[in-house]
Amino acid sequence: AEELCVFADGRWPRLHALQPDSGSTLGSTLVTITGENLSLLRPPLRLSFALRAAEFLATNLSIVNDSMAVAVVPATPTATSFARADVFLSDSTGRTAVLFSAFTFDPGWQPYFVTALMIIGFVCFAFVALPLYVASGCRAELRRDSTRATSLV
Questions:
Q1: Alpha carbons 89 and 76: distance in angstroms, whole number
Q2: What pLDDT, in 10s, does the model give residues 106-149?
Q3: Distance of CA 47 to the CA centre of its chain
């Protein structure tokens, strides 16, 4: 219990940085984690990227030495545009080192492509389909009015 509760004597891991600090929501970004006392962590280890409503576990986590670890960032399909994730490195004893807002998920081009398609569809509807629909309704109304006018005569 003493080993887990004493912060000042260097028995607790600390994270300093994550490089690179951004990557795709599709995952597969290899990151290097720098910190201190990482070799004190006891397996199994867990590196997670936490967003508001979800947590994603990194794969291929490996402690290189006391101050460096490497891992592969997971895919995060629910991440919003440029979501910032908190990074947690935990071991089997409950020790956890945290970097807040340490990794930014870049959504790539796919969400923008979908948005562009939606805008193009709206423009086509507004400037082509809607006027054609209104014009066909007006022609039908004119035909109906001309039949009514001839029947009155």
A1: 18
A2: 877 766 777 788 888 888 777 877 778 777 776 666 666 666 65
A3: 17
Token code pair at residue 100: 């807040």
Report the C-alpha gap between 103 and 84 in whole angstroms: 6
Of all residues in the chain, the percent with pLDDT exceeding 70 is 82
Alpha helices in the chain (DSSP H): 2-5, 110-124, 130-152
The two three-digit tokens of residue 50, written as one number: 């936490």
Convert 134-149 to b/e letters by CB count within 10 Å (16 or more is b): eeeeeeeeeeeeeeee
Amino acid in position 34: T
Q: What is the pTM of this model?
A: 0.66
CA distances (Å), 95 to each of 44, 47, 74, 92, 100, in order?
12, 12, 22, 8, 16
Q: Please enumerate in sequence order all residues whose Cβ is within 8 A of that of 112, keeping only pairs 6 or more positions apart, or say none.
A: none
Of 4, 90, 6, 95, the C-alpha closest to 55 is 90
Cβ pair 128, 39 in contact under 8 A: no
Taking residue 1's Cβ as centre, other Cβ atoms within 10 Å add up to 5
